[in-house]
Amino acid sequence: MNICGQGSRFTSARRTFSLLPLVRYYTPRRAVLYAPGDDSKKLHKALSLNVDCVAMDCEDGVAVNRKDAARTTITKLLAKGPVSTQTPEWSVRINSVDSGLCADDISSIFSGSVVPPTVLLPKVDVSEHLVWFANKLSTHLKGKNSDKKINLIIYIESAKAILNLPAICRTAKELSASKPVEPVALVFGSDDLCASIGVTRSEDATEVMYARQKLVLVAKAFHLQAIDMVHINFKDLESLKKQCQLGASLGYTGKQIIHPSQVQIVQELFLPSEKQVIWAQGLVAAFQEHQAAGKGAFVYQGHMIDMPLLRQAQNILQMSAAAKSSGHDSTKY
């Protein structure tokens, strides 16, 4: 598993600073593409794309009478494994704890010698959902002799989940100390949230803005990535661009997508621009020079530099470097 990089340390005459990213960083998940788990052709197509993450779906994208077929197809695909180190991150979206289908998903998908490195758990409304999942997974993985943790991506999709969000994240972090799971991201499920509060989602999504912003704040407080809502009209690429730009400006680190045509736009707009990277490189270099000279506060490009700005610069550089090292940078479309 990819583990968050260590923050750099700089010492001044007054105190030591530890530069930690605003987002706890694992692998880039600018675009999370769903592919139905019961459709081998679509799965292979998705996994061949230049996309950060593919979610092999057992949940909403699969009919109830096709769940077994999805589990079997995904398990066989996992056994074959990626053909390259630069393929997308392989993940599986299982069914929710309350669905009554989650236990069968776990026992089937984690039965083979190769298990998915990342699991997406939908409709987490309360901490107890995470406890049940972690215990079930831990029991099933016992004896597999693996010290690697499963990356856990948590879906927030209801009014109850929004209210319980800090407690959910706190529980996820606590479970990671004793269970084979490592929480890495939150996903904003806007459509189920709209159903939960009794509204219809509009094009500008103003009716879910409070929840959308709260998820980012809580995610960052717990050093998790924040993955934004789906743009359901995959043919309207101009509207997709606007939604990505707003999501990125709110602090989201990626977005759920449902069609290959959305990959390039989403991954480009959730990648720091060249101008941002140059700014960040210059700021970090200037900070190092001033620290080496024993100087404290300094001005960079007309702005007084403080620790929050320095952390932002470091985060930009980490995001850019991670995207390039994954092989999914925007120059390869």
Automatic annotation (TrEMBL):
Cofactors: Mg(2+)
Annotated positions binding substrate: 93, 157
Recorded catalytic activity of this chain's protein: propanoyl-CoA + glyoxylate + H2O = 3-methylmalate + CoA + H(+); (3S)-citramalyl-CoA = pyruvate + acetyl-CoA; glyoxylate + acetyl-CoA + H2O = (S)-malate + CoA + H(+)
Top-level taxon of origin: Eukaryota
Primary site of residence: mitochondrion
InterPro entries, alphabetized: Aldolase/citrate-lyase_domain, Citramalyl-CoA_lyase, Citrate_lyase_beta/mcl1/mcl2, Pyrv/PenolPyrv_kinase-like_dom, Pyrv_kinase-like_dom_sf
One Gene Ontology term, aspect cellular component: mitochondrion
UniProt GO molecular function: (S)-citramalyl-CoA lyase activity; hydrolase activity; malate synthase activity; metal ion binding
A Gene Ontology BP annotation from the UniProt entry: regulation of cobalamin metabolic process
Swiss-Prot/TrEMBL keywords: Acetylation, Hydrolase, Lyase, Magnesium, Metal-binding, Mitochondrion, Transferase, Transit peptide
Domain HpcH/HpaI aldolase/citrate lyase: 30-260
Residues in the signal sequence: none
Subcellular location field: Mitochondrion
Residue sites binding Mg(2+) per the record: 157, 192
EC number: 2.3.3.9, 3.1.2.30, 4.1.3.25
Assembly description: Homotrimer.
Family from the record: Belongs to the HpcH/HpaI aldolase family. Citrate lyase beta subunit-like subfamily.
Function: Mitochondrial citramalyl-CoA lyase indirectly involved in the vitamin B12 metabolism. Converts citramalyl-CoA into acetyl-CoA and pyruvate in the C5-dicarboxylate catabolism pathway. The C5-dicarboxylate catabolism pathway is required to detoxify itaconate, a vitamin B12-poisoning metabolite. Also acts as a malate synthase in vitro, converting glyoxylate and acetyl-CoA to malate. Also displays malyl-CoA thioesterase activity. Also acts as a beta-methylmalate synthase in vitro, by mediating conversion of glyoxylate and propionyl-CoA to beta-methylmalate.
Protein name: Citramalyl-CoA lyase, mitochondrial
High-level lineage: Eukaryota, Metazoa, Ecdysozoa, Arthropoda, Hexapoda
